[in-house]
Amino acid sequence: MTAAKQPQSGRKALIAKLHKALKSQYRPVVANTGRSMLEQVLFACCLENSQHDVAEKAFARLLESYFDLNEIRVTTVAELAETLQGLPDPARAALALRRVLQGVFESTYSFSLDHAKKHSIAHGIKTLENIHGIPPFVVHHVAATALGGHVIPLDLGALSGLYLAGIIGRDEYDAGKVLGLERLIAKKGVLEFNSLLHQFGAEVVTNLHGTNVRKVLQSVNPEAIKERFPKRGESLSAPNPPPPAAGKEGRRAAEAAQTAAEQHRPAGPQAAARPAGKTPLPPPGAGPKRAADGTAKTGGKAGPKPFVVKPNVGKPITINSQPAPVAQPPASGKPIVSKPAVTKSGKKPMAGKKPPMAGKSAGDAKHKSKQPGKPAASAGKSHSVQLAKRKPR
């Protein structure tokens, strides 16, 4: 009788044997619940199918390599996978990390999930399940460690270990679900069993034909090894999920299959995959008509030339300097002392004004100063001196 057709009592006996065999080979690891809720979710993305110490090193390297969680969110999967080297599947962990951060940011416009543990355990699990792209293992692991739920998280390694031990059948292995498995484990020992099963599953993924894996399976169910264990050099066949059913579960499975191509695309909501029929492509010819250098593209009309800002270059201003006046000494060698002129009325003329010439009118004096060959009276004085003597208006 195979494990898929065994009664619940037979499965419970196999689970008890498996728990005992795992305790003899591994030591349980206590989960770090001192992190914030979102950090525990991100760590669970690194922990899937990997050993606990390897996941701790990868997660610490991730936080050291980037400035904050927003920088991780907008980083490509390929770059995140380089940071997470050492995990069994760095690309899968990187994709889960970025999708979780994007889903949390779009729902709360912040990087916090502390509201998920403010209410009941069912409310917290529902909040985690509503994050787009979060793996089921991450939801169940955080529900068991941070929320205190009676849940057994199952990743690919744990499912493979249960299948090779003859505890679950091929249909449950393909579907990735084992209904009622947590009822076979007491609540006080569920955390210990989860840690031991996860370590065993991580070794199944990385070292299937190792000594520890074969020893555990031999002590649990020797008959299942002959039927299900692959030959040396071969790997266990991957799960073959059933076709999506109608309803909410079917829509979720279709969305997961549609977003599988997000692995190497840029991050952010602006680069999200466009669902068919919801955001139509722009009509032909609606794009730019010119290239960046201003040349017209082939197959379309030439658009306007790009606007180029030219520097404002003006002509230089030249200022001609005037030569300083040179005073000539008189022929007699005596200094000339200017005396204020006295008019016929006995009054001295005002400063800055020339006295009128005797016997001639002011018009004749002006006309005489403009005759060629004869310098004006103020030719020897500079322009600045004349301006200084003028009376302000």
Question: Your description of this structure?
Answer:
The longest helix has 19 residues, at 90-108. The chain has helices at residues 8-25, 37-47, 52-65, 69-73, 77-83, 90-108, 121-129, 136-145, 156-164, 170-175, 190-206, 211-220, 222-228, 248-258, 362-369, 383-389. α7 packs antiparallel against α8 and α9 (156-164) crosses α11. It starts with 7 loop residues before the first helix and ends with a helix. The radius of gyration is 46 Å and the shape is elongated. It has 393 residues and is mainly alpha-helical. Among the domains are: 1-32 and 154-259; 34-145, Hypothetical protein, domain 2 (Endonuclease III, domain 1), CATH 1.10.340.30. It is built from 16 helices and no strands.
